[in-house]
Amino acid sequence: MSATIALPGFADPVGEAQATFRAVLGAMARPGKMHRVGERLTAPAPLDPATASVLLTLVDNETKLWLDTHAAAARDWLAFHCGAAIIEALDEAAFAVALSLPDLAALPAGTHETPEDSATLILQIAALGTGTRYRLSGPGLREPTLLAADGLPAGFATAWQRNHALYPRGVDIILCAGVTLTALPHSVSIEEA
Amino acid sequence: MPDALPPEQPHAARQRWMAVLARADADDLGERLGALPTYRVLRGPEVGLVMVRGRAGGGGAPFNLGEMTATRCTVRTEAGFLGHAYVAGRNERQAELAALADALLQDPLRQAALLAQVIEPLAATQQARRDAVAAKAAATRVQFFAMRTMRT
């Protein structure tokens, strides 16, 4: 047994998982809206509380989880608390955790018959609410809204538009920073503002 | 469960003490452990259901016997040892103490003393209880001589 699991999961597993699920649901329905989650959670390095909360909520032994090289330090903690099936092949992932944006085209985008088989990327960035500003528009947004995010690479909007163009296929992103999260479902159109 | 156990069992000692701890009475266990060192609960104690499977038919095919209540707990001691416990029923204190005892028993500095003070007396109590039940049952045993003759 590995001795690298030093931290507990949710103190109140049911309540905190439900609150986080509600936040993810709200963020997916209203792209770009910020939600606070995981304020009571001590996350294992290098994950932020928001990232760890989303994983504790969504990932279990039936969801294939891919970790990028930076997130791999939290592997044992995730394996223990989520019972996650951690895989090496990015193109089979149901959830992918990354601290820097991977190639969106490398993630499964689903098929026209089963678009629900697409992956969800849980991307941890430096900060939400400051940094580069993006204009979001699409379902869930009556009017285009602005999202400020620090830590997305240059050319993100272009890469995203290629993903958006695949609709109804395509990858969703949950952006996490500190105790804040927001979501970018693949129905949303993004341009730099 | 495989019919024949593999020849090498590196965890045999730990399996034994975990089995004893899982059957131990919470008060008895707490008393024998004495003053508890500081530790951190990583998970639980939480109550859930586990499916009990058996091999009921003559062919040995697995059969879902039913679900039973179980409580699990995982703790970490200051020295960094992880202790796990899965106990039948919903006694959360027993699960937590059993997990702590499992963690402490993995510490080479404490193992011998704990085995002598905690595990062996508990194992003896449990064996005595089993023997008493077996003796009671044996007293009412009925021998079906005719059938036994037929089998041999």
Question: Your description of this structure?
Answer:
The complex is a heterodimer of chains A (193) and B (152). With 193 residues, chain A is of the alpha/beta class. Chain A has one domain: Bacterial phosphonate metabolism protein PhnH (Rossmann fold, 3-Layer(aba) Sandwich), CATH 3.40.50.11310. Helix content of chain A is 23%, strand content 26%. The termini of chain A are far apart. Chain B is an alpha+beta fold and 152 residues long. Chain B has one domain. In chain B, 48% of the residues lie in helices and 26% in strands. Chain B contains 5 helices and 3 strands; from the N terminus they run ααβββααα. In chain B, β2 and β3 form a beta hairpin. In chain B, α1 packs antiparallel against α3.
Class from helix and strand fractions of chain A: alpha/beta
Strand arrangement, major sheet of chain A: 1-9-8-5-4-2-3
Indicate the CATH architecture of chain A. Answer: 3-Layer(aba) Sandwich
* Total strand segments of chain A: 10
CATH topology of chain A: Rossmann fold
Which percent range describes the beta-strand content of chain A?
Answer: 25-35%
Number of strands of chain B: 3
The biggest sheet of chain A amounts to: 7 strands, mixed
- CATH homologous superfamily label of chain A: Bacterial phosphonate metabolism protein PhnH
